[in-house]
Design goal:
There is one protein chain. The protein has one domain. A two-stranded antiparallel ribbon has the order 1-2. It has one helix and four strands; from the N terminus they run ββββα. The protein is mainly beta and about 60 residues long. Helices cover about 5% and strands about 40% of the residues.
Length: about 60
């Protein structure tokens, strides 16, 4: 399996390093997963991870 640079995401959280990889859904598939990390105004690191329920166009509507 090959990973390309545009699919690897890195964030430095001041002593915490996070790395994750996203893979696009297959052709015609609808995905609802997400992950993000960002620094809050008070210096803390916030991490969000989510998964929308359902895996087809009927659920998406």
């Amino acid at each position: 399996m090959t990973m390309t640079a545009h699919r690897i995401h890195r964030r430095d959280g001041g002593g915490i390093q996070a790395c994750w990889r996203r893979r696009p859904a297959g052709r015609g598939a609808i995905g609802g997963d997400w992950i993000d990390a960002f620094r809050l105004d008070d210096g803390r690191l916030a991490v969000t991870i989510g998964d929308a329920a359902g895996h087809d166009a009927v659920t998406w509507r």
